[in-house]
Amino acid sequence: MACGILSHIKFKTRYLGGYMDHRLLEIIACPLCHGKLSYDKENFELICKFDRLAFPFRDGIPVLLENEARILPTEENQ
Ligand SMILES: [Zn+2]
Fold first, then answer.
1. How far apart are CA 73 and CA 26, in angstroms?
2. How far is ligand 1, taken at its centre, from the CA of residue 11, in Å?
3. CATH number of 37-71
4. How far is the CA of 44 from the centre of ligand 1 (A)?
5. Coiled-coil region(s) at which residues (predicted)?
6. In DSSP terms, which residues pair with 53 in a beta bridge?
7. Distance of alpha carbon 72 from the chain centroid
8. Tens digits of residue pLDDT in 41-65
């Protein structure tokens, strides 16, 4: 279980006032493929390029759930 990591993220994002730290991106991973996520600061989402999913934030906490994620259009090539 990733409970320890999640509470750490919660603390970190609160501490940073919702600002995503790049160090945070190194400890969190996609719940599907366990790949690295990238932060989209324009949409305030965490992006998995492999699954083409965008995970939202809720109260400054990343919601890493497949059913909460937004499917990215395939044309959006980064
Ligand atoms: Zn993924």
1. 25
2. 24
3. 2.20.25.10
4. 17
5. none
6. 48, 71
7. 14
8. 888 899 999 999 999 998 888 899 9
| Measured distance CA(76)–CA(60) in Å, rounded | 25
Percent of the chain with pLDDT over 90: 41
Amino acid at 23: R
Residue 62: name the closest of 32, 1, 35, 11 by CA.
Answer: 11
- 51 CA → ligand 1 middle, Å: 5
Q: Detail the DSSP E strand segments found in the chain.
A: 38-40, 45-48, 53-58, 61-62, 70-71
Give CA–CA dist 40/61, Å, rounded.
Answer: 14
**Residues 61, 78: Cα–Cα separation, whole Å:** 24
